Amino acid sequence: MYAIPYLDVPALQQVSGRVRLPGSKSISNRALLMAALCPQPTTIHGLLHSDDTQVMLAALAQLGCGLDVDGDRVRIHGGGLGARRAMQADLFLGNAGTAMRPLVAVLAILGGQYTLDGVPRMRERPIADLVDALLDFGCQVSWLGEPGFPPLRIATPRRGSQRRVAVRGSVSSQFVTALLIALPLAARDAAAGDIVVEISGELISRPYVDITLGLLARFGISVQNDQYRRLTIPAGSRYASPGELQVEPDASTASYFIAAATLSRPGKASPGLTIDGLDENAVQGDIRFVDAARQMGADIRSHAGSLHVQPARLPLQALDLDCNHIPDAAMTLAMMALFANGRSTLRNIASWRVKETDRLAAMAIELRKLGAAVEEGSDFLVITPPAADSWRAACLGTWDDHRMAMCGALAAFNPARRPVRIEDPACVAKTFPDFFETLFMLAEPAQDVPVICIDGPSASGKGTLASALAQVLGFHYLDSGALYRLAGVAARRRQIPISVDHAAAIAQLCQSLQPRFVGERVLLDGEDLGAAIRSEQAGMDASTLSAWPLVRTALLQTQRSAAQLPGLVTDGRDMGTVVFPRARLKVFLTASVAERARRRQGQLRARGIDAKIDQLRADLEARDARDRLRAASPLKPAGDALLLDNSDLSIAESKARVLDWWQQKQCLEPA
Ligand code: C5P
Prior knowledge:
Elements: E1 6-9, E2 12-15, E3 17-20, H1 25-36, E4 42-45, H2 51-62, E5 67-70, E6 73-76, E7 88-92, H3 97-110, E8 113-117, H4 128-136, E9 140-143, E10 152-155, E11 164-168, H5 173-182, E12 195-200, H6 206-218, E13 224-226, E14 230-233, E15 244-246, H7 251-262, E16 273-276, H8 289-295, E17 299-303, E18 306-310, E19 320-322, H9 330-336, E20 344-347, H10 359-370, E21 373-376, E22 381-384, E23 395-396, H11 402-410, E24 420-423, H12 435-442, E25 443-445, E26 451-455, H13 462-473, E27 476-479, H14 480-493, H15 503-512, E28 516-518, E29 521-524, E30 527-528, H16 530-533, H17 536-545, H18 549-560, E31 568-572, H19 575-579, E32 585-590, H20 593-606, H21 613-629, E33 642-645, H22 651-665
Parallel strand pairs: 3-16, 4-15, 7-8, 11-12, 19-20, 23-24, 26-31, 26-32, 27-31, 32-33
Antiparallel strand pairs: 1-24, 2-25, 4-6, 5-6, 8-10, 9-10, 12-14, 13-14, 16-18, 17-18, 20-22, 21-22, 28-29, 29-30
Helix pairs in contact: 1-2, 1-3, 1-6, 3-5, 5-6, 9-11, 13-22, 14-15, 14-17, 15-18, 20-21
The structure holds cytidine-5'-monophosphate (C5P).
Residues 458, 480-481, 484-485, 539, 542-543, 546, 572-575, 623, 627 line the site of cytidine-5'-monophosphate (C5P).
């Protein structure tokens, strides 16, 4: 997960390959709760691990349910929410609507002393319709803050003879789902009569109710569905575990990958993208996104247990669609509309306004930043795409909404090859913490992977600056000096003398080295050589062997292969001149020799080594001279490097300066 302030996604050309996506959020959270309501144990496979399921798991544990989590498999002990449950609990449910709504209903029917609350956005998401229905049924629920919204308090219900609840279908289908999961608990008595949920008005997002009905059937509850107007839970219904349950990969998540494969522009024939574990027969309503995408021209083939997507002919066909049945995946259509041949209209999406954020407003604002013209209606969006060359390099706000972030990434397929900055990329954790990692694994950039080179003399602070930049940008980091140092250490270990006569043997050794850099550790054949390569001796050896062209050539490929999405920050002597001559940003970092000697002395002292400043200064000057005067890749600024003398700058100041340059190079418009 990229826990950084923003992520710069370079322009992408295509995605291809094979991927299995994490489990459906809707199925995962429903299945967890239903399993907790069974007297018998259940093992759920393919469970999604995300903020929302974490919230549900934590709440169930707090309520006394026994859970064994092992990767994406979780075993829920039986009877967790039975008579032995915690009768008192204060539950914090983050921004997880799929936890808040059904837990309110279940706990209100079961009874006890509970409070339920969430993040500030959760306190803005309405829940009055559900609570009113529960109150009518004899439950005791009271508002702790603003009426109609969490936080709320639940007490033990006054059991009445009520057998009927009415709820509006037009606000959130999650209210209907919550009632359907909870009311079987009041229908156990075969003599007390059926319980009927009456839905007034049109039921929105029906497919989500279908997921609930399908899962209830797996858990032994067969609800009679009279055209989504009357849903009848037969008297005598009891939860019974199916034993094992497989969660389908999330169809809404799949929409981003289907869109990415559709928007791909491969140079030659593309193998396309295969999404495993999901096909057109999935129970999730958002699988119908496939039909909408096809209307726009997507080439999607459904096989048993997989979907295969080939790049479409672009531009896509503009679309005019009632999206009520695919509220979440419709956001992906809004992104695809940017690649269409005219105006697209997405209708009947008022429910967007009460999701993680007001998605109608948020989407309109962000699409405009990319260059689109957008009309925002009360329950529709009309999107006119930007002309191919008028796409802008935008900083996209994500509104603490995972779907805004995942949608935003699709802008990276723009034909103008503009990068896109995604703010707060970690918000994808709500449903897919590794979304960006997965995208980058499948994607090819439209141009060279972005590389930032920090070259400069010894002890100029390049390593510190480069690794700090890599961290804040979420880029990979390559300390090229470490490779030369490692070459020396590895050579000595194999008794190869560090002498030019053995340059060929050392070069050969360099090609076989497969080091792994993990923080300060440098792992070679399972051994950590981090400390060994940072010794003064290793520095001297590196300085010697790095002057030999054979060795430099041998390390070229290793260095270049470090350039991976989303980008690379690297430091050394010739990164900008030789290794990455087309790097997006080159910085030549210097500091006065006096200052560098002082810093080196500080570093050595921190390691308990005492060194005289004059000696250090002489060493540095000698090393600089050797690096500058050698024939192979001498130390010098690249013609297009920006010079930065950091003698009087703190690391934070240097970092800010370089980030500023980076932003300018990206032509990013201010947020
Ligand atoms: O940067 P560091 O001090 O770790 O590098 C060790 C030595 O490796 C340097 O003195 C320099 O001679 C050599 N080097 C190089 N080219 C690089 C990085 C380091 O020649 N790109």
